[in-house]
Design a protein that fits this description.
Blueprint (H helix, E strand, L loop, with lengths): L1 H22 L14 H64 L6 H7 L3 H81 L27 E2 L17 E4 L5 E3 L4 E7 L6 E7 L3 E11 L6 E2 L4 E5 L10 E6 L7 E2 L1 H6 L6
Antiparallel strand pairs: 1-2, 2-9, 3-8, 4-5, 4-7, 5-6, 6-8, 6-9, 9-10
């Protein structure tokens, strides 16, 4: 009877043990399925949206500056027309006062009766009439030009104001996307830290690759960056000398394969945190370290500019950056200067 009571309990224990074993990630560097892929995709999507929003904002700001400059130019031309008109009015006033002093206010018949030399008087009168006609025509042209300039200036000012309002909307949109991106970045980094702590990567997150259109065989590992710690530099962070080139970039920045090759290593843990090593023709290897996520698996073929991961600050890292290294073997200890190596392949940094 006691044996009958123990068998259901034994079966339950075995089922629990099997469930625990099934839930554990596989041993080794690369255990697919550990963590959520949605955060990586969200960061990549927001990264692209932020880049587009920034591009639109900068283009709108540039156009607004052009419209502002045009409005100012038209305003200056309008001021010049106003000054010319004022000068014409003064000239007309001087002629009128001169005519009044010289009897110009009398009828032409009276001038003829009083004049000692009617021919001379008629010639003078014709000169005055021609001057008045010329001034009238000049004033009319000035009035038309002033009205046209005023209209153009108003249109330019209205266009500039509309662009400014649009830019404010774009700035708000840009700020909103960047705030969402920053939040998602640190969620992604949290997943990376958990993977490094567990010593098991969470598998490749296949990112939507943007159209690259590269015509060169080699590219920089990130699109926009600031160079920080350089190859061979010293410091307390390294046992000897820095073995690569650091690119200061935000968490989640797409990391690109610098050339054709094959992924020979994807690992988590250790000083480099999450890292990828790619083998290239000619016996060279490139390493991409301190990542927040990977987008390739060991054995994958990669092409120039292909997104293979996302930058982070995993492992022995003091802040978000990409550690890029060039080696003559897959393992550390055989590094060469990556800046000179890329420069020799037509990629100045």
């Amino acid at each position: 009877m006691r044996l009958t009571r123990r068998r259901p309990l034994l079966v339950a224990v075995l089922f629990c043990a099997l469930a625990v074993l099934a839930a554990r990630p596989a041993d080794g560097d690369h255990a697919p399925g550990h963590g959520s892929s949605s955060v990586s995709g969200e960061v990549a999507r927001l990264y692209e949206e932020a880049a587009k929003a920034t591009e639109q904002y900068e283009a709108g700001r540039e156009e607004a500056e052009k419209q502002r400059a045009r409005a100012q130019e038209l305003e200056e031309r309008l001021d010049g027309e106003r000054r010319e008109t004022a000068t014409l009015h003064e000239d007309l006033g001087r002629i009128a006062r001169s005519q009044y002093r010289d009897g110009g206010g009398l009828p032409l018949t009276a001038h003829m009766l009083l004049a000692n030399d009617p021919d001379q008087m008629m010639r003078g009168q014709r000169v005055v009439q021609q001057a008045e006609t010329t001034l009238d025509q000049a004033l009319e042209r000035s009035r038309k030009a002033e009205a046209e300039l005023a209209r153009d200036e108003a249109e330019a000012a209205a266009a500039w104001k509309k662009l400014e309002e649009r830019n404010e909307e774009l700035a708000t949109l840009k700020q909103d996307i960047e705030q969402k991106l920053e939040t998602a970045r640190w969620r992604l980094q949290g997943e990376a830290d958990a993977s490094v702590a567990a010593g098991a990567c969470r598998g490749a997150v296949r990112l939507d690759q943007p159209p690259t259109g590269f015509t060169t065989r080699w590219v920089a590992p990130v699109e926009t960056y600031e160079l920080s710690a350089s190859y061979g530099s010293g410091g307390a962070r390294w046992a000897k000398r820095h073995t690569g080139q650091d690119f200061a970039v935000p968490i989640g920045t797409p990391v690109r394969a610098v050339g054709d090759g094959r992924v020979v290593k994807v690992s988590c843990g250790g000083a480099f945190g999450i890292e990828i090593v790619v083998e290239h023709a000619g016996g060279y290897y490139t390493q991409y370290a301190h990542l927040a996520a990977v987008a390739v698996d060991q054995g994958d073929r990669v092409s120039p500019g292909q997104w293979i991961g996302q930058s982070g600050t995993s492992g022995n890292s003091t802040g978000p950056h990409l550690h890029f290294e060039v080696r003559v073997t897959p393992e550390m200890g055989s590094a060469v200067d990556p800046v000179q190596w890329l420069s020799g392949r037509g990629v100045p940094l």
